[in-house]
TrEMBL record:
GO MF term (any one): ATP hydrolysis activity
Entry's localization field: Cell membrane
Boundaries of every ABC transporter domain copy: 356-595
Predominant location: membrane
UniProt GO cellular component terms: plasma membrane
Membrane topology, record value: Multi-pass membrane protein
Keywords tagged on the record: ATP-binding, Membrane, Nucleotide-binding, Transmembrane, Transmembrane helix
Annotated protein name in UniProt: ABC transporter ATP-binding protein
Species of the source: Eisenbergiella massiliensis
Transmembrane parts of this sequence: 64-85, 146-168, 174-193
Annotated Pfam families: ABC_tran
Amino acid sequence: MEEKKKKLRYTTLQNLRYALSKWWGWDSRGLVQAFSRIPCVVLIPLMGILLPREVINCVTEGAAYGRLAVTLVIFTALLCALHMYDKYIAQGKLFAIGLKNRMNYMYLWAEKIFTTDFPNIESSSGQRKKEKALQFLYQSSAGGEAVVDCVVGICGDALGLIIYAGIVSSIHPAVLPALVLMSALIYIAGRIIKKLELGIRDESADLERKLNYLFAAPTDFAAGKDLRIYKISRWFGGLFSIYFPAMIKLCARNELWWFADDVLQGILNLLRDGACYLLLIRMVLEGSITPGDFTMYFGAVAGVSQWLNNITKQVEKINRFSVQCCEFRDFLEMPDGFVNDGKECLDTEGNRPVDITFEHVFFRYPDAEADTLRDLNFHIRAGEKLALVGLNGAGKTTCVKLMCGLYHPTGGRILINGKDMSKLSRDEYYRLFSVVFQEANFMPFTIAQNVSGAMEDMDRERVKSCLELAGLWDRVQKLPYGMDSLLNRELNEDGVELSGGERQKLLLAKALYKKAFVVILDEPTAALDPIAENELYQSYGELTEGRTSLYISHRLSSTRFCDRILFLENGRVTETGNHEALMAAKGAYAHMYEVQSHYYKKKAEGRPVV
Ligand SMILES: Nc1ncnc2c1ncn2[C@@H]1O[C@H](COP(=O)(O)OP(=O)(O)OP(=O)(O)O)[C@@H](O)[C@H]1O
């Protein structure tokens, strides 16, 4: 219920004002060109009913051939000019104008994804809003582009209706109200179906999201391997057979409502037109109108029906646009808690490393039922190298997400140099961190651009030294275009395909390039070979020199070169100290270490490993 209210937060007029002001801002020339089509929309059909009237009157009045010829020439020339201009705008311009608007909306949508608070994108409610917003722009008939046609169309139709209404009103005062009443019935039926359709939008958006995922998954190179080796295609088939029928059922129900609406429209149109024609025929027989007038009125009645039909259709389209526009604006206007305006800056003069305190931090994911972090307390001194270890699901990555500002605590505080993170500006905060996450995501740009995060003015020497430090330079310099080689094969045909370990090294180089105050490495060696792993340990001091660092790893031996180790269990720190102290304590850390080293010892002694 609350969701529905939110969807319709703006009225149709407010949404039209929004779309028109955006359109004016992006393409004022296109807007003027689109509106210049309105006289053609009105005059072409109007001349279509005036021409027969003039011709029949000339003939029935016995006018000279000269008058007939002049009438025909004037009308034909005018019609020809209007048609040409109309075609030029409608087919030559409107498509490009609408597409331009759609692209601009797409840009706003993508920009929001890139800049909004992380929970807005990761939570399923945020995902749903994102999908719904996409329906405003994902094809030419969607609101973002269709609004161009609708606005121009409804203005032309309204003007045409006014002129035709004047003509049919002179037949009989009851004709126009009767025509309007019937069109209103058609419109109301359409609205009822729209409401029914609205009721299943959440369900259809969810199904679309799931089906989009299923369609996208087989095109993912990485998934391609699993799909083949493990015959996952059968599982996919199973998933398709769950979601496809559900989607088809939903669409079929929707189509049935629209079919009923079409039948109703057909019957009402027939009644409306039939009654008007009967009236006109009687007037001709009574001699109150000429045969020329008859054809004009005949055309005008049909014309009014057409204008009213057009208007009801345009109103439906505009209503559809309005619902989609509300959803689009809902997504764009999702509040961001972590903002730049009015926030403080941190004193980072002299590039001193920062100190970080977690003070009674609680955290629960937006859609989760239980806290992931529970009363988490720790302090990382400026320049300290801290290791965070724990079992799967203990909350290590969540802790990183909070520390680097992707999420905010749901309870307690995180202090950076004694300042509450919520008081700091977002850009300022993100500037502090370099993070190597477990998943490697690269943009379809060159290696150098990915490492530096800059399109042009990068320090190429620095890129090279970061690649060297990360152990990737040997591989990169052998590529035909070196550090200027493009990544991502989906967009770049000759893009470079890196192995899992190489991608991890590239992430490391990227983290090193950014002169951040805190370096966070979340399982940075998971995909590295033993040589590369060893090199990373050897150079860890150099990599993190002069910075505060947090190192997460399941290989406990790798955390020995850190100053201190925190052992995380069920979202809180249960043990803390250096390796020796934790081993002496004989707690969970010591147990995990023993289990792991036992494995290596057995291997080294040549005994079978269980
Ligand atoms: N986006 C999310 N929404 C809801 N719950 C989540 C989300 N991400 C993680 N969780 C849950 O939070 C808990 C901690 O996850 P987290 O990834 O922080 O653990 P971890 O210690 O890093 O685990 P691992 O060692 O396997 O990487 C898990 O139970 C996980 O299911």
